[in-house]
Design brief:
This protein is an alpha/beta fold. The chain has a domain of 299 residues: TIM Barrel. The chain is built from twelve helices and 14 strands. Strands 1-2-5-8-11-12-13-14 form an eight-stranded parallel β-barrel, surrounded by five helices. Strands 3-4 form a two-stranded antiparallel sheet. Strands 6-7 form a two-stranded antiparallel sheet. A hairpin with a 2-residue loop joins strand 3 and strand 4.
Length: 467
């Protein structure tokens, strides 16, 4: 997501060209038409709404700085058929809405504050439970500095800034701190200290609060230009030795052997010419994220066995590799896929699929094209990552039924052809996955924050009927 008040972490439109109980462990089935999709889950479907912290609490038209308004809004959510909430609790500064032993507490932004006299997360959990709504707490995983407000450990702690801030390549190939490029303070996820920091916060959440689970957001690298620090170089050299028995790894020309030149496309720094180690570098980054997710999952379950551990990712799997995430099942091999070309994959890539580590996977299917048949270019395809139907097909295909998959819409920022497309999109997602996530709550009640410039309650309610 781009702007926090309108497009928080969920959007993840990072490319210039071109994230409920587990109740469906059925193996993949071949429907006989060559599509090789998997069985569509049956049973009760989740209806989730995301509550972005900056938009709903600190935003100009946000309602969630007042307890009475929160109660009234949750009443409406219950009435229209919502069954669960995702509540942001760790923002882009890395600060949390509760008192943490590992970071600072955020209380206000832009003249607006958390509700007075209450513990925000505790109040949200109790108020939601009174209405039989589940609550999942979401964290901005590897972001520890808000660029706009210059807050967070990347800005407030010189040692933290100099050691852990992500180092990116600019278009000239120079390695620079990410905040020098005007972006938020992503940190290098390869550091054990960075991983332990967020894992400790996750453990605090599930032990201090009666949340139903936690959701990783921004559990990724910033983009394809990250992380090119000396620490990443050292780790990559060791990875080449351990995984490939590469005796020449010590002579790595870094970063030219990975990316030898860069270009700018639509404001993004992208590889122009790649080096001989590029695909192995992509695999290494995926190994970092996979190992973190596995470690975090085990820690959360050890802290509280009944807490769900989930993740949000962009729904464009085939084009998601620049952020270092493989959200597929390990039963899916992108390197040897006979149906979809994944030119970025390497034989080791399948080993880093993390779907089996999750109790819930939300994918952002934020596309105005609903059906493959709506565009002649995709009409004869089964998979197309940039349409709703195609990305849902693809999501089921690569996760192989190993995790409850929840498709998502961006209600306010998508260029819907008409208001009724919201209803159609929700129904389509519910028909094909374990549930639907609607981003973001502020779009439903504040017309100023959606492109249709009108409240969206009715269309969401219509989409959720008979779920």
């Amino acid at each position: 997501m781009i702007k926090s008040t309108l497009l928080p972490a969920l959007c993840l439109l990072i490319l210039a060209a071109a994230g409920c109980k587990k109740n469906n462990d059925a193996p993949p089935v071949d429907p006989g038409d060559g599509s090789d999709t998997v069985a569509i889950p049956t049973g009760k479907k989740e209806a989730i709404v995301w509550i972005d912290l900056n938009a709903n609490v600190f935003g100009t038209y946000g309602r969630f700085n007042d307890t009475a308004a929160i109660r009234k809004t949750l009443d409406t959510l219950q009435q229209i058929g919502i069954t669960a909430l995702v509540v942001d609790v760790k923002e882009s500064s890395g600060h949390t809405v509760f008192q943490s032993a590992y970071t600072s507490k955020v209380s206000s932004h832009n003249g607006k504050s958390l509700p007075a006299g209450v513990d925000y997360l505790d109040f949200m959990v109790k108020t939601a439970k009174e209405r039989k709504l589940k609550v999942y707490a979401s964290v901005m995983t590897f972001v520890e500095g808000d660029y706009d407000n210059k807050t967070g450990a990347v800005y407030e702690d010189a040692t933290f800034k100099n050691k852990y801030q992500s180092i990116v390549c600019d278009v000239s190939g120079k390695r620079v701190p990410i905040t020098s490029t005007g972006r938020n303070g992503f940190v290098n996820p390869a550091y054990p200290e960075v991983q332990d920091r967020i894992i400790n916060i996750l453990k605090e959440i599930v032990t201090k609060y009666a949340v139903d689970g936690v959701i990783l957001d921004y559990g990724r690298y910033a983009n394809i230009d990250a992380d090119f620090s000396d620490y990443s170089k050292t780790q990559f050299v060791q990875y080449l030795k351990d995984v490939f028995n590469d005796q020449n790894a010590n002579f790595l020309n870094f970063p030219a052997d990975i990316v030898s030149s860069w270009k700018t496309e639509s404001g993004q720094t992208m590889p122009a010419v790649t080096g001989k180690y590029y695909k192995r570098w992509l695999a290494y980054r995926m190994s970092v994220i996979y190992n973190f997710v596995k470690k975090a999952h085990a820690a959360v379950k050890a802290a509280r066995a009944d807490a769900l551990f989930g993740s949000y990712v962009g729904g464009w799997y085939g084009d998601y590799y620049p952020v270092g995430v493989n959200w597929a099942s390990q039963q899916y091999d992108p390197f040897n896929d006979p149906k979809i070309r994944m030119d970025w994959a390497y034989p080791q890539t399948k080993d880093y699929g993390y779907a089996e580590e999750l109790g819930l996977l939300m994918t952002g299917n934020y596309f105005s094209q609903l059906l493959l048949a709506d565009n002649p270019a995709t009409a004869n395809l089964t998979y197309n990552w940039w349409s709703l139907e195609g990305s849902l097909n693809g999501g089921r295909y690569v996760t192989k039924g190993k995790v409850p998959l929840v498709g998502s819409i961006d209600a306010g920022n998508t260029d819907w052809k008409s208001k009724s497309d919201i209803r159609k999109a929700i129904k389509m997602i519910l028909a094909q996955t374990s549930g639907v996530m609607i981003f973001d709550l502020v779009h439903l009640y504040a017309p100023q924050y959606n492109k249709l410039q009108q409240p969206l309650w009715d269309e969401v309610k219509a989409g959720l009927q008979d779920k």
